[in-house]
Amino acid sequence: MAVGIGFTDLVKRPTGRAAEVTADERRHGAALLRGKLEAVRPPVLIFPFKEAAVALVGKFQGNGWLEQRFAGAELFVMPGPYEAKATAEGTIASLARRLA
Q1: Quick one: which of 63, 59, 64, 69 has its CA closest to 34?
Q2: 0.90 exceeded by pTM
Q3: 17 pLDDT higher than 90
């Protein structure tokens, strides 16, 4: 935490694939994460994978900055691996501008 960045996961058990995680496990993990984030109060929560963001806030279109918040944090979803280069670069640039 020396630079104010942390990494976590929603469900604390190994799985072969995401489909093995149950809805109850996701809900439980979201509640635990909310409590931790409310205690720490980070300004931004960045998701490297859209599926994790959907598990927390529900379905949405696209990526980048979301209108929703979670535990008071602004939410940002990284572009997917198959997104067009120009679109992905613009999305990443918006993150860099906001965090500068």
Answers
A1: 69
A2: no
A3: no
φ, ψ for residue 8 (rounded to 5)?
Answer: -155, 180
SS3 content of the chain, % helix, strand, coil (to 5): 45, 15, 40
57: left (phi over 0), alpha (psi -120 to 50) or beta: alpha
Q: Which domains does the chain have, with CATH numbers?
A: 18-99 (3.40.470.10)
pLDDT over threshold 50, residue 1: no
For the stretch 33-56, pLDDT in tens is 999 999 999 999 999 889 889 988
Strand, coil or helix: 73: strand
Rounded CA separation 95/28 (Å): 29
- Tokens in use for 55? 């598990």
C-alpha torsion sign, points 31, 69, 20, 23: positive
Amino acid letter for position 17:
R
Coil/strand/helix, residue 83: coil
